[in-house]
Amino acid sequence: MKKFINHVDTLLDESLRGFAKAHQDLVDLNPEPRFVRRRQPPSAGKVALISGGGAGHEPLHTGFVGRGMLDAACPGQVFTSPTPDQMLSAAQAVESGGGVLFIVKNYAGDVMNFEMAAEMLDCPVETVLVQDDISLPREHEIGRRGVAGTLVVEKILGAAAEEGADLGRLKSLGDRVADATVSIGVALSGCTVPALGGPTFDLPPDKTEIGVGIHGEHGREVADFASATEIVKTLCVAIEEEIRPSPGQKVLLHVNGLGSTTLMELYLVYELAHEFWTRLGVAVHRSLVGNYTTALDMAGCSLTLTLLDDELIRLWDAPVLTPALRWGC
Amino acid sequence: MKKFINHVDTLLDESLRGFAKAHQDLVDLNPEPRFVRRRQPPSAGKVALISGGGAGHEPLHTGFVGRGMLDAACPGQVFTSPTPDQMLSAAQAVESGGGVLFIVKNYAGDVMNFEMAAEMLDCPVETVLVQDDISLPREHEIGRRGVAGTLVVEKILGAAAEEGADLGRLKSLGDRVADATVSIGVALSGCTVPALGGPTFDLPPDKTEIGVGIHGEHGREVADFASATEIVKTLCVAIEEEIRPSPGQKVLLHVNGLGSTTLMELYLVYELAHEFWTRLGVAVHRSLVGNYTTALDMAGCSLTLTLLDDELIRLWDAPVLTPALRWGC
To answer: Nearest to residue A245, comparing CAs of A213, A296, A280?
Structure first.
């Protein structure tokens, strides 16, 4: 494994220290238990938004801590859930009278540990579960995974929380955004997990993994490698069959790189997806293209579509000032 | 070659169309001859800043078009210089009475083609040549290459141009920033050039290329793979021997990913470089970490150091609103 690393056991801490120094105007790092919190104090009574999950998906979630998005993020080791004491300490540090909202990607470890933290907290707590990955059927026994759509939930809830929405309102808004958001990914390669020293799975040179998870989980099918147009069509058709957007429906189209796919390719994928939706009469009203929810150095990308209404557009457009996402500030 | 691509000949155009659609609030694409221009009209008499070069380094340069940075960027095919008619058309489109400043990375094709465009233009033109890559000796016959430090020159000149600095002032400021900026990179792998269908060079599993160029050019030496601490020390020592910053000197430290290196690693590299400079008494006063000047999907990174003074700090901090770099707006 040829990576910039000293030791698997120190990778996360060394990296977080660098992250906190590089963004010291925006965030503070609590080293033990590990969490990153926003530096700019929220207004009194603001609901504290907290997310977290295994590292290896950077900039998610630590890169989204700051004004207009998360109040704190709890990183676990690579592809490993953070522990309840991280969420508990983070919540105690940033709660400022309005209660706590956890934004949780649907993985068994994350769900269990956030639940334990919620039980230990002595303030009002709600949880929004993100399960945007449509590669698994809705009735799958472990449910659908949370992937790149998590960013959309965090951005929109962050804006609403900044405006003073209360906990009940944020919970219902979060559930609504999560329901309106679907994603599906495709891998062209596996990714190198530091603790393994190698890839989580191998793809033959002529194959792609349609519906891959952000930890390299098996998706819908191993398909023959094809042109970008054909791959993008496969992903868009899967989304279309899931949500059947009406003509005129406004959507956010998010093309997310999984790690080692070039921006040049991601913009090409965006162009092809934009064409697909436009031909169906769907209005691509907002967009985001780049590496936001990665799977270490996996080659591949995902498409996320969020059905928008005027409220969601306003909240998406609201100012945000974080290490990885910033506009209007 | 497993990439998101339809055909090598259409890759750049399809990608640029997607880029322009995703950032239609900020930029316009001129398809033939190819250039990207800022959408927000500059104030009358502002010097027009134009850069360009081969594609494959995204977001450089197209991602830096917008308020407070470039007025236009001319992308060539992957790793291939744009043609003089691109620079000429771009200059004619965005010149608004203050003349034109070309910011050119030091590669023979780029230099020649920007020179030809300058000769054809019938308005005042100056050129700032960026040659920040210290991997080659200063007296090398083709001179030193322009790499990730180009972003620093573009950002600082963009801010000064927005403030109304005239062409002569921008030329001297640009030369000063270019002189104050040094970079050196390291590759852990080659990169996949679409037209070749494979890597520009192969590195054995136990080797790194110290001083690699952003097209995979051979650097200083092929070194044994080592710990992150040792690799970063090698890069920092090379920079230190070149510029010998005094204790107390304020610097901008830019860690740039070459394509497929994770953010987690880049922040770790930043942490180690920050430690190195801090131990020498150098003040890391500003920082930038991420994939800004890439070499397609190369694994690796570069370090850039710019010696700062109060004026450069003020211009670095000034508002910028482009697809890839934005703050203060």
So the answer is: A280
| Cβ-nearest to A14 among B262, B268, B328 | B268
Structure tokens belonging to residue A153: 């939930």
Q: Is B73 on the interface with A (CB under 8 A)?
A: no
Instruction: State whether residue A16 sits within 8 Å of chain B by CB.
Output: yes
Say if the Cβ atoms of A228 and B4 lie within 8 Å: yes
pTM greater than 0.95 (yes/no): yes
Q: Which stretches does DSSP call E strand in A56-99? A: 72-78
Question: What residues contact residue B1 under an 8 Å CB cut-off, 6+ apart?
Answer: B192, B194, B197, B198
Q: Which residue has the tokens 């930043």?
A: B270
- Nearest CB to B58: which of A5, A208, A262? A262
What is the torsion angle, in degrees rounded to the nearest 10, for the CA atoms of residue B122, residue B34, residue B28 and residue A312? Answer: -160
Q: What span, in angstroms and rounded, lies between the C-alpha atoms of A122 and B291?
A: 42
Q: What are the residue ranges spanned by the domains of chain A?
A: 8-180+317-327, 181-307
10 Å CB burial of residue A141 (0-12, 13-18, 19+) is exposed
Residue B62 and residue B79: Cα distance in Å, rounded? 14
Q: Confirm whether the ipTM is greater than 0.90.
A: yes
Catalytic residue, from B215, B254, B274, B285: name it: B215
CATH superfamily, region A8-180+317-327:
Dihydroxyacetone kinase; domain 1 (3.40.50.10440)
Cβ pair B271:A15 closer than 8 A = yes
B218 is catalytic: no
Q: What residue in A sits closest to B75 (Cα-Cα)? A: A264
Show residues of chain B in contact with A291, CB under 8 Å: 263, 291
Q: Looking at chain A, which residue has its C-alpha nearest residue B254? A: A22
| B228 lies within 8 A of chain A by CB | yes
Distance CA A182, CA A166 (A): 26
Instruction: Say yes or no: B231 contacts chain A, CB-CB below 8 A.
Output: yes
Angle, helices A167-179/A149-163, rounded to nearest 10 degrees: 150
- CATH number, domain B181-307: 3.30.1180.20
Q: Write out chain A's pLDDT in tens, 329 residues.
A: 899 999 999 999 999 999 999 999 999 999 999 999 999 988 999 999 999 999 999 999 999 999 999 999 999 999 999 999 999 999 999 999 999 999 999 999 999 999 999 999 999 999 999 999 999 988 888 889 999 999 999 999 999 999 999 999 999 999 999 999 999 999 999 999 999 988 888 899 999 999 999 999 988 999 999 999 999 999 999 999 999 999 999 999 999 999 999 999 999 999 999 999 999 999 999 999 999 999 999 999 999 999 999 999 999 999 999 999 999 98
B272 vs A contacts (CB less than 8 Å)? 14, 18
Compute CA distances A31 → A9, A15, A34, A117, B278, whole Å.
14, 12, 5, 18, 21
Catalytic residue list contains B61: no
Residue B55 forms contact with A (CB below 8 Å): yes
| A147 reaches B (C-beta below 8 A) | no
Chain B residues touching residue A272 (CB < 8 angstroms): 14, 18
